[in-house]
Design the sequence.
């Protein structure tokens, strides 16, 4: 049998993101052994039962030196501590990546906590997920035909970046490179802002006295517009806080956009309203994910 | 063979809404003959070819007196003229309904243009549709398990209202009654505002220099949030203008909601952000259309 792409993979956080990477690598015979670390023994046991990991790890000192790939798939808030704990034990050939939704903050943590091991670390953001989370939601095809953005560090060698690309590509994803700042600006605009707007719409409706009446007549447009308001509140709180400055700029832009629409509407300016809607309609009709 | 529910149905506007009513009534053997009127001879010919209408009508004076049901399924803007033209010819037993997305304006047109025939007319709004329109998009099951709101006129007899209810129920819809004002408030909140917000997001992105980069990383959250921005610009311009005052109130409420979120974010108030997101998450997770 051919040697797998990675003999040993260590995953921190065996939920949707971490679990799906493992299942995808396994389905492609791209991994020998998968070892899981996590805060909850119950989740680790469940992940083992689901065939996501071979076993849960207990001792970083012995597990990391021969690891080919380490994947930090926890909430971003846990990464500083994990980075500090793993830094002393990484093997010379070990490559490390994360799966967080924001990148400037993760890069900052890496410089602070990985110290000289920073050259091993390639920040990554798989553009996949959804409202469901946890090990039971993990699937081997989660990354199939999805995009992954990596934001390499100046310290990374070409070989390290190539290994991380391979990890995602073997799972069916296509890999793009951006700077951390570009990444956070793009995702503030096309992901973080829409989530915030969707949460705001539902929150504004729910707090009204007649919310049962209102929601009883909501239909498919509402359903799709608010699907992302069913996302994890904790995860989105953390993303918004992590990308706060850029997201505030996006909110300001959007508020200006709304204010222009409000003016057109209050002046009953059908021509202007029609123009705005037509531009959006044309762009959205030709866009495909 | 049993007598159908409606021997003769006349439909103005044989697109998605009008065409689907005809196909639904036909599939339930609830109609004898369907006659179509419209501004485009080509559309009428197409509707005939698709089996939506038996024939296109040419003379209102001869077609309306023996019609059991007349359905105004055109854009709302065309209704005043059609109402004025049909009023003199309606049979004593003819019932009339519309399918418009706003109701206060339609009720106003009915009083003005249907004159004493206003008792025949029951305003209706089927909560169905989507981005697609036109006769080719019509389907027999469009109204299956959908809601239809009717806003009866004080002049309607119980028998007239019951006939209109039957028309929708035989197509698989469930019928609710609201006042026109209630209707327009509910739909401003759960439909018109989300459309406007979705158009605004896409318009704001498209006008930016780097819109190709931005849109290339947009994923499933963006896809669903902006699905309604692919809706007809003309139809939504008209809906927004027709429901302008109520929609402006909803916009004001939403802007306050956004402003509260902006404050929480700029103060890095994670607790407040988390609360807002949690309330929205809980409500959206338990909601079903």
Sequence:
């Amino acid at each position: 049998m051919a040697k797998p792409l990675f003999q040993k993979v260590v995953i921190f956080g065996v939920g949707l993101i971490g679990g799906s990477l493992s299942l995808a690598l396994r389905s492609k015979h791209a991994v020998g052994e998968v070892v899981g670390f996590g805060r909850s023994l119950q989740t680790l046991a469940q992940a083992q039962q689901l065939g996501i990991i071979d076993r849960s790890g207990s001792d970083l000192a012995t597990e990391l030196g021969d690891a080919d790939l380490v994947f930090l798939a926890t909430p971003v808030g846990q990464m500083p501590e994990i980075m500090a704990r793993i830094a002393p034990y990484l093997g010379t050939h070990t490559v490390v990546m994360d799966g967080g939704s924001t990148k400037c903050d993760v890069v900052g943590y890496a410089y602070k906590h990985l110290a000289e091991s920073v050259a091993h670390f390639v920040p990554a953001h798989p553009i996949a997920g959804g409202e469901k989370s946890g090990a039971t939601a993990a699937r081997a095809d989660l990354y199939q035909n999805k995009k992954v953005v990596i934001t390499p560090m100046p310290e990374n060698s070409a070989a390290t970046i190539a290994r991380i690309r391979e990890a995602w590509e073997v799972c069916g994803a296509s890999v793009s490179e951006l700077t951390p700042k570009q990444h956070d600006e793009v995702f503030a605009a096309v992901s973080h802002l829409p989530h915030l707007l969707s949460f705001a719409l539902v929150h504004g409706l729910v707090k009204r006295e007649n919310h049962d009446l209102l929601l009883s007549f909501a239909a498919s447009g509402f359903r799709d517009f608010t699907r992302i308001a069913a996302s994890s509140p904790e995860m989105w709180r953390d993303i918004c806080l992590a990308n706060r400055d850029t997201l505030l700029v996006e909110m300001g832009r959007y508020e200006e956009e709304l204010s222009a629409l409000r003016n057109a509407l209050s002046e009953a300016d059908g021509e202007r309203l029609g123009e705005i809607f037509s531009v959006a309609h044309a762009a959205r009709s030709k866009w495909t994910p």
